[in-house]
């Protein structure tokens, strides 16, 4: 991995947990206070803070503190490397399937053209 490439492993690790994905979904509507994020989860605040730390270390959210209130905001641009990686994988597999389809069609045509089956 190049030095300045985003760490996909950190992003996929952060996205692997359903609680963190739920937090990101809620943040997609706009910035929220940590207490607003923790309420619906039913989790204790230290657990919520650990989830938020994982999201922040992956670059998926940014936090700001104003007095005693910490606010979290999603960083949608941080998902671009994931989208690019998935697009590359999809293109690779589509090309492989196209080559397999061509090969199978050639075999079928050769079998149909063979006068001595």
From TrEMBL:
Natural source organism: Paragemmobacter aquarius
InterPro entries linked to this entry: ArsR-like_HTH, HTH_ArsR_DNA-bd_dom, WH-like_DNA-bd_sf, WH_DNA-bd_sf
Protein name: Transcriptional regulator
One Pfam family cited in the UniProt record for this chain: HTH_5
PROSITE patterns: HTH_ARSR_2
Stored PANTHER family: SLL0088 PROTEIN, TRANSCRIPTIONAL REGULATORY PROTEIN
MF (Gene Ontology): DNA-binding transcription factor activity
Residue ranges constituting the HTH arsR-type domain according to the UniProt record: 1-94
């Amino acid at each position: 991995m190049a030095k300045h490439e985003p760490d996909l492993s950190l992003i996929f690790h952060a996205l692997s947990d359903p609680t963190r994905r739920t937090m990101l979904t809620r943040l997609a509507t706009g910035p929220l206070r940590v207490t607003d994020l923790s309420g619906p989860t039913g989790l204790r605040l230290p657990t919520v803070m650990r989830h938020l730390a994982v999201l922040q270390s992956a670059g998926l959210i940014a936090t700001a503190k104003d007095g005693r209130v910490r606010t979290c905001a999603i960083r949608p641009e941080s998902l671009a490397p994931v989208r690019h990686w998935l697009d590359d994988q999809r293109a690779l597999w589509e090309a492989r399937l196209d080559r397999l389809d061509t090969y199978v069609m050639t075999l079928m045509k050769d079998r149909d053209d063979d006068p001595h089956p």
